[in-house]
Write a structure and sequence with these properties.
Elements lengths: L2 H19 L1 H26 L10 H22 L1 H32 L10 H26 L1 H19 L1 H9 L7 H40 L4 H11 L5 H6 L1 H7 L4 H26 L8 H21 L1 H20 L6
Length: about 350
């Protein structure tokens, strides 16, 4: 290799190292881009509204109205949901140890009836129970403290909000800067790829939010009918975890099942059946209908992306795994498949 090539390789490695060190900031920036992309659709629709035959809303006013709508929705959520949610979270901290104790008692009873042969040489379940109790206790005792006192969380949120507003104020300028990073002959193609990414992200997020709302409502109604404690907390948890496909719905069944054990074992079984029915409805009817005209993701790639991005990037990677996968899929399909492989000549 020539000296210039060595310098190029060293510069490339250093660039990768720097990007890895600031990966959390880049993820926050990506989250802001996704949010700004969705809000920009609303802004453009508001701009198309006519106040009269000649007058339309300018972009600044449309942005202000959009942000005000978001603020009103968040305020209503905190005013109507958070007080009840906080009360039920406090109750959860009181009843959860009892549920775990009952699960341990059931395990001990089963071992006594089978002379210890059912779980011979296996300490998996006791270890899971002990670790789960320790983790949940720490989470419940430190959750509000971490949220209210973490400087990093506050700064990250402020960065996210500031980046979203800046991107929303003049998205074309930032888009053009990104396009300029490509050769002149390919810039029009990149612009088309970005447009497809925007369409896919907006469609996916719209369908996902509707699915989250439907799953939360169905879970709340079902848990109310069964008489499971803390239905609001469990329903909101099921709705939020719907954002993480395949993995999230499976995790959401654990907490209501434990709480149902406090009343009767049959309730725990009923809760598992309820969540299985909801998940079947979601996977066979709800998601296909919502995503019919939107992005299509293979289930295996979805699960792998959630696990891989969670391991690489932590909490943010877990929640941004699907948007990252959507963008990656669009770029690979358009560049690698259409522009390279489809034109490959032996």
């Amino acid at each position: 290799m020539r000296l210039g090539q060595w310098f190029g390789l060293i510069a490339f490695v250093i660039s990768l190292y720097i990007l890895w060190q600031i990966r959390q900031v880049l993820l926050l920036l990506f989250a802001a881009i996704v949010f700004a992309t969705v809000l920009n659709r609303i802004v453009r629709r508001l701009q198309r509204l006519r106040l009269n035959q000649r007058l339309r809303l300018n972009r600044g006013i449309a942005i202000a109205i959009t942000l005000l709508l978001v603020l009103i929705i968040l305020s209503l959520f905190f005013a109507l949901i958070v007080p009840s949610l906080a009360e039920q979270v406090q109750q959860l901290g009181n009843v959860l140890p009892q549920a775990l104790a009952r699960l341990q008692a059931g395990y001990d009873w089963l071992e006594s009836k089978t002379d210890g042969q059912a779980f011979e040489n296996s300490q998996i379940l006791p270890n899971i129970i002990q670790n789960l109790q320790t983790w949940l206790t720490r989470l419940l005792s430190n959750f509000f403290f971490l949220i209210s006192n973490s400087v990093t969380a506050v700064l990250s949120f402020l960065l996210f909000v500031a980046a979203t507003i800046m991107l929303l104020s003049d998205p074309l300028a930032y888009r053009n800067v990104f396009i300029l990073a490509f050769p002149a002959f390919y810039r029009q193609r990149v612009d088309g790829i970005l447009a497809e990414c925007e369409t896919s992200l907006v469609g996916w997020l719209r369908g996902t939010l509707i699915a989250m709302l439907v799953i939360a409502i169905l879970s709340y109604i079902g848990l109310l009918i069964l008489g499971v404690p803390l239905p609001l907390v469990n329903a909101l948890l099921a709705g939020l975890l719907e954002f993480i496909p395949n993995v999230g719905p499976t995790i959401s069944v654990i907490l209501p099942t434990l709480l149902a054990l406090l009343d009767a074992p049959w309730k725990a079984v009923a809760v598992i059946i309820l969540y299985l029915l909801i998940q079947q409805f979601e996977s066979l009817i709800l998601v296909p209908v919502l995503m019919k005209q939107e992005v299509s993701l293979l289930p295996l790639f979805t699960v792998l992306s959630v696990v891989i991005f969670a391991v690489l990037f932590g909490f943010l990677g877990l929640f941004l795994a699907i948007p990252l996968l959507i963008v990656l899929q669009v770029w690979l399909k358009e560049i690698v498949v259409k522009d390279i492989l489809n034109h490959w000549q032996s």
